[in-house]
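Sequence, please.
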């Protein structure tokens, strides 16, 4: 059985390109709208939290590895053991913080996301209402509403 992978739309309705760069561009344009200007500081904090989490994710195994190497290289001295234990505790703490930062980012960014979704929904609804009656009659849009 041969499947057709033709992506052309049978009713010739134009749709947005599906590339990741275009998608990110549309999201950034949505977030840059004046209606979301009150959320700019929160967006900045979310970016900082994301970057900090990424840096800590990289740093914690490095510090942990250095602490393990210190334990392996320690002789009888208690100062080296204490430093190694402190390094291990620091690595575990950094790993915990690295895992927690994205959660804090999500808490902060949730209202921004909801506001952006609201704006996109209002735009989509307005666009659907501006389409001609002929468009809606030929696309069976009512069938979708009955199904939902």
């Amino acid at each position: 059985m041969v499947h057709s992978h033709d992506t052309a739309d049978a009713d010739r309705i134009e749709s947005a390109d599906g590339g990741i760069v275009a998608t990110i561009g549309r999201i950034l344009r949505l977030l840059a709208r004046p209606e979301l200007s009150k959320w700019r500081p929160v967006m900045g904090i979310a970016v900082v939290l994301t970057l900090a989490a990424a840096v800590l994710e990289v740093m914690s195994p490095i510090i942990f590895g250095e602490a393990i190497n210190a334990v392996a290289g320690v002789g009888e001295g208690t100062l080296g053991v204490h430093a190694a234990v402190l390094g291990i505790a620091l690595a575990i703490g950094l790993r915990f913080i690295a895992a927690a930062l994205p959660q804090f980012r999500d808490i902060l960014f949730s209202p921004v996301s909801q506001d952006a979704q609201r704006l996109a929904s209002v735009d989509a609804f307005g666009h659907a209402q501006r389409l001609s009656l002929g468009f809606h009659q030929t696309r069976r849009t009512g069938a979708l509403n009955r199904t939902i």
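The chain is about 75% helix and 0% strand.
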